[in-house]
Amino acid sequence: MTTSTFSGTTFSGRTALVTGAGRGIGRAIAVELAGRGARLALLSRSAGQLDETAALVRSHGSEAYVLPADLGDREAPAGVARRVFDDFGPVDILVNNAAVVWPLGPSVSIDPAAWAHSFDLNVSAPMALTFALLPDQLRQGWGRVVNVSSGVVARPGSMIGGNAYVTAKTALEAHTVNLAAEVRGTGVTANVFRPGSVDTGMQAWIRGQEPEAIGPALHERFTRTYAEGALITPEHSARALLDRLPGDDNGQIWDVA
Ligand SMILES: NC(=O)c1ccc[n+]([C@@H]2O[C@H](COP(=O)([O-])OP(=O)(O)OC[C@H]3O[C@@H](n4cnc5c(N)ncnc54)[C@H](OP(=O)(O)O)[C@@H]3O)[C@@H](O)[C@H]2O)c1
Questions:
Q1: Which DSSP letter does residue 232 get?
Q2: What atom of ligand 1 comes closest to residue 46's alpha carbon?
Q3: What is the distance between the alpha carbons of residues 197 and 17, in angstroms, rounded to a whole number?
Q4: How far is the CA of 5 from the centre of ligand 1 (A)?
């Protein structure tokens, strides 16, 4: 555990937990936080990817704690919160970034169990992790919760074939804004981050699907965006988040686009 020496302009002395930190946007957020002085707990399922992120974090002179866990397991958030506290200390900054975009395709073809599992991962897991870590943040009178959403929430009809994802991200935003109202005035804030269209494995995975399986229009949209060079880098997206994080915003939708 460390004593906080937070200056207000950097995150020196603060401990952050980033989920989905093994690659893509989560890795970039973790590295950007390390560059601004935070010590990092890094969570995803792939231990090898987390080790790579940890090396990048340490190259900034920050501490890294690697925490392989499957947030699809309903018991995971409580266990994760306990392990981080015991091994690394209280979490000041929680970035709920891990998510899945599947299942994709015509809604009548979607297995309701897969739909519900994606909702568990994309909404229930961040909620459970937040609720497990919030008491320490409230006790210390400072905390930052960021839930990574998507621009699709502003245009729910634009991602045909992505019913589970669009529904989950919309629920995640409602959860965040409602929680923000609840914690107002405590020193803890909760905000939504929409990271933009970012060149990551998630985007590549969508482009790699058979057009017939996910719907030709959806496949064409993601392929075209990539071909037009319209995707931003994870680092660009992460910097946009980190520029906002030190402030006192609460219940805001931070949109890169
Ligand atoms: N890329 C975009 O254009 C875009 C646009 C809008 C919103 N977003 C949002 O941005 C966030 C990051 O997306 P990304 O593009 O960086 O995705 P990504 O490249 O697929 O990375 C997702 C991360 O989440 C982890 N993860 C997935 N399932 C998990 C599970 N069951 N338990 C623990 N960790 C899990 C992955 O690691 P493991 O697979 O090893 O577990 C990985 O580290 C997501 O919330 C996404 O919805 C992305």
A1: B
A2: 40
A3: 23
A4: 31
- What pTM was estimated for this model as a whole? 0.96
Active-site residue, 169 included: yes
Contacts of residue 135, Cβ cutoff 8 Å, sequence gap at least 6: none
Q: Which of 139, 29, 39, 28 is nearest to 87 (CA)?
A: 39
Query: Which residue in 149, 150, 197, 237 is the catalytic one?
Result: 149
Tens digits of residue pLDDT in 139-169: 999 999 999 999 999 999 999 999 999 999 9
Q: Whose CA is nearest to atom 44 of ligand 1?
A: 99
Which domains, from first to last, does the chain contain?
A: 15-196+235-255 (3.40.50.720)
23 C-alpha vs ligand 1 centroid, how far in Å?
Answer: 8
Residue 210 CA to residue 182 CA, distance in Å, equals: 44
